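User: I'll paste a sequence; please echo it back and then give the predicted structure.

Assistant: Echoing your sequence first, then the prediction.
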Amino acid sequence: MSEKTIVPVNRHLLIELVENREEKPDHGILLPEDYAPKQSEHAVVNILDWAEDVKIQPIETGLRAIVDRSMIKELKYYDQTIHLILENYVTCLVVEE
């Protein structure tokens, strides 16, 4: 099967989640294996691509944004997992100067 390119449409942005790679401190307290600390309401993402009708400006590949975590759409396409978000749920852009 050939490589597939995912192209966002209808005001969606193709994003990549930026994970916090913090090591879990050892408190000596046993927790269930499936325990996960409460996640923030927002997530930091890298913008990979966007639909032509997105109105967010300035926008460029690799730009980071803070988005509403609950509105991130996770889609599976064959062996690919992609994340999309509608432009309305981008809270702010992270512009490094």
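Residues 1-18+40-97 form a domain with the 10 Kd Chaperonin, Protein Cpn10; Chain O fold (CATH 2.30.33.40). The chain has one domain: 1-18+40-97.
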